[in-house]
Fold this protein.
Amino acid sequence: MKYVLGVDRNMMSISTGFTKEVRSHLGGETITNCYQCGTCTSSCPVARVTNRFNPRRLIIRSLRGRRSEILSGETLWLCCSCFNCQERCPQKVEIAELIYALRNIAVGEGNIPKIYSEFISALYSEGKLVKVASFTEKKRAVYGLPPLRKTDVEAIRKILLETSFGKVLKVLEEKKE
Ligand code: SF4
Ligand code: SF4
């Protein structure tokens, strides 16, 4: 059995069903370029502070087809999208984009951290990710800032429903039932 940087070459050539699925999503196309050198992990500010996140490991687990573990876990959501890894990857794996692709697959199945589903609901119902408290509004005047303009919620909803956001809302609704 031949190994490259500790990775079984035969295993790396396996194209699992999940790998194909990831590659078919925007951003996931480069996953099979990875040869597990670990440059991404050594460049990652999140991996530096917690062992709950490791982009190299996330990639090898995806290549091995550990679909449900990847999509239902928290790991995907710990990336802060700084793109350090992507700039340094010698194999031009678009790691941050790949993580977006994995997140999109996860969201399509209703796997999304509560904080993000709350943002989605707030954007749809209020037209804002975070509700602005009347206390904050009043403070604007103190600092000489103009009042916030009224949000056109209907227009925002129309835009959201014209995009795939509508599908995400449907998935989240179904999950609640
Ligand atoms: S830096 Fe690139 S090739 Fe190296 S492990 Fe990360 S994704 Fe794979
Ligand atoms: S984009 Fe994500 S995975 Fe890449 S270095 Fe930044 S936090 Fe780490």
About this structure: The chain has twelve helices and two strands. The first helix runs from residue 9 to 13. The first strand starts at residue 3 and ends at 4.
